[in-house]
Amino acid sequence: MQVLRRILIAALPVLLFCVPIMAEAHGPTRQKVTLTADIAAPPEEVWAVIGNFQDMSWHPAVHSSIGENGNEIDATRILTLGAEGGPTIDEVLYKYSDEKMSYSYRITEVAVEVLPVTNYSSHLTVKPGAEGGSVVEWRGAFYRGYPNNDPPPELNDEAAVAAVTGVYQAGLDALAARFAGN
Amino acid sequence: MRWRRGLPAIRTLAVAIFGCAAWPVAAEFAFVTNQNSSDLSVLDLEVHAEVARIAVPGMPAGIAVGRGAFYTVSADSKEVRRFALRDGALLAEVTLDGGPIGIAYGAVRDRVYVSDWYNARIWVLDAGDLSVTGELRTGSAPAGLVVSPDGTWLASADRDADQVSVFDLDSGELRYAVTVGVRPFGLSLGPRGRLFTADVGSDSVTVVDPQQGRVVTTIKVGTRPYGISFAQGSGFVTNQYADTVSVFDLETLSVTHTLQVGEYPEGTDVTGDGRFVLVANWFSNTVSVIDAQSKTVVGEIETGDGPRAFGRFVADGYGKDD
Predict the structure, then answer these.
(1) CATH topology of domain A2-11+30-52+95-179
(2) Are the CB atoms for B72 and B313 separated by under 8 Å?
(3) Which residues are the signal sequence here (chain A) (predicted)?
(4) Average pLDDT rounded to a whole number, residues A117-123
(5) Global pTM value
(6) Is B35 on the interface with A (CB under 8 A)?
(7) Which of A15, A16, A18, A19 would best serve as a mutation to test chain B binding (most B beta carbons within 10 A)?
(8) Record: contact B283-A141, CB cut-off 8 A
């Protein structure tokens, strides 16, 4: 998982603003990560690139995607990361709006070695930005990979936030680069 | 304050659209703490729009409204702040130790009460300058707080003790420690003087008689109940994991409706006329508006990032001169 690992390392400095809700005595608390990026293109053009649940080729960590039922509610996709035969993430769509330019999905199956989270849900949306551009907002809520107290470092809250932040940042950076110079 | 659109302009628009100047009756506002963006959204409940965003450093969750002021608790930075209701100006702040979380305002004694999640106590603060005037010992991990309208007693939901503590505010003595459901977090006072706890560990609401210190009954609700509000003869319970609100009848004390709201619903409160129930959706970054009579969701208002609004958060008086 070279690609994802590289992304994760790159993302580490970003995490400091994402703090757990409170330290707790009763297992994990739900974490939330929200990232936004200004994109130099109108919302319709950006949505045309990212608005298809069955096509995540705009994200540099995603090698391929296969799925069923397009952009219908309960549509599924299996993302293969990195390269052919790489690790996979199974996801299901639970909200979709062309009008609002947004969709929401959950992870139904992923190894914590690939993405150290559980009960993950995510929301991706395009909004109007400054000077005719767009703002892409990507947010996720999840628990860390380790369900009990005293998690190992690679499965604690910080690791979960770092991993998700890394994935979002890489995707948003790629989008910004794709539309740069517009 | 980072930005503020012209309130009068929005009102004029509302009058033009709805053909009435008052909808609902009084001009009311919701003061919603946004934990992840460390600020507070002021929502105009006439026009269903955010009209101001006020910086509240330190990841605020707890909220209370009082006489001419609203109060916030930032759990991360351990700060309690008092802001002017009319313009959101910061009036006072204090940094506490431990783990401040829940907050309630008591009008009769002009005090605010803040629960300390880590140290099994409640701070008593002067509602004006926020100086600490006393402490009360609770069970482990107190969260939600309620002050009786006559100012004679105070109750806390002590999460890790599975109990509600009821204090006599004249003497400061513990009156009752009542065992409720598993891990009570939210605590609200119903219209007939009964207390209701949201038990996150047993997916239930426990009804407590604070005068006699006993449990009346237990109501099964959705997964991970968080907050409770009351309107039109019903209770409205937010269920964090189910993305729903369970509605129960206050006579029969049984669930009559289950409403889909935004994702990860948390704090809830009601407009003064009892017409609308508001629910802060932590993941969706919105507040759902529920018509309490028809028990349907009639609107959704955008907020900052991670709205929690843990406490009472609806008041009038914003945008008014003295």
Answers:
(1) Alpha-D-Glucose-1,6-Bisphosphate; Chain A, domain 4 (3.30.530)
(2) no
(3) 1-25
(4) 95
(5) 0.84
(6) yes
(7) A19
(8) yes
